[in-house]
Amino acid sequence: MMCAIEAGKRGRSVVLLDHAHKLAEKIRISGGGRCNFTNLNTKPDNYLSQNPHFCRSALARYTPQHFIALLEKHGLHYSEKTLGQLFCDDGSEAIIKMLKAECDAAGAKLMLSCDIEEIQRSPDETTSHSTKPASGQVAGYRPQAGEGLGVREYQVSTSRGNFSATSLVIATGGLSIPKIGATPFGYKVAEQFGIPMSKLHAGLVPLTFHPEEWADYIDLAGLSVDATVSFAKQQFRESVLFTHRGLSGPAILQISSYWVPGQALHIDLLPDHDMAQIFIEQRGSRMLLDNFLTQYLPKHFAEIWCARFAENKPVNQFSEKALATLAAQLHDWQITPTGTLGYSKAEVTCGGVDTQALSSKTLQANAVPGLFFIGEVVDVTGQLGGFNFQWAWASGYAAGQAV
Asked: What is the pLDDT of residue 130?
């Protein structure tokens, strides 16, 4: 919709084709219905990509302040939650209505329940492209009378008629949340036109553990702790939520996008405390270790942690070396997930259309004039907290200025 709005403002004849029955379902369900539409702290470092600099141009040209101005233009209210996250006080539906109104004002036509049956590109003397991908969402513009003569066009056959355009924009998202219509459509279009892809995997997703290994922690389901979770050079300080199958919560969702299967996570359970120093100062305490730790950790977790990693005896009966080891374990709990809950529970898809094959300024395919890829289908994945919506707005704007 953002791309369609900007293209329409520039006088393009625009039609947005969407296989979904409802408009912008991913916006509708986001943020518990309130839509975390951007983050005030947006910067390239908040994005994961094989080419970390690719997103700079689009993000610089369309900032969180631009989208905030759009809300204010429509009289919508918003509030900051934490860490720069902005939510719409009027709800997700208000964001959708706002974008729909902007599309209407720009003259962009929206067609829902429209299955894409085939995409062709007008052949030249040497090449021809044709495919029948799964249904999805395509935004393009229909040339005005006489426009596009001598310019290769795209023909899109759909369940609601046939369309021609000199520009074709793929804005289909990734594989996450298939229950609202996610398909591999965009990736198939990239494959059709010989555009390379980076490896796909679920991101911002809960992590799972082997049932036998996790048996001790099942009773903690629903409990959360404030912790710092690290993997490689990435670390996030937010809550960690225990579930029946593993770990979730903001810190875990964040690190999941970076985690490599088979490798351990490092969790600092007490980031605000120096447990080595505390043990030194309290070495004469007669409190049982689990009771001692309940001063800093939830009681049930302290009990289970002690049962797994230490003998539960008075603190004054531990040697200085044993207490130092316990402190180190509390600040570096190493745990290896067996997997994730997959795309059904993932908020995003990591990987996608290779950014080396796209212009960072326009999102157009370098080797296929008139073909653009924007949003989640591209190998640019934001962290949790409104960054993925900001990439959607920014990449849509960039392409909309170029089609």
From this structure: 52
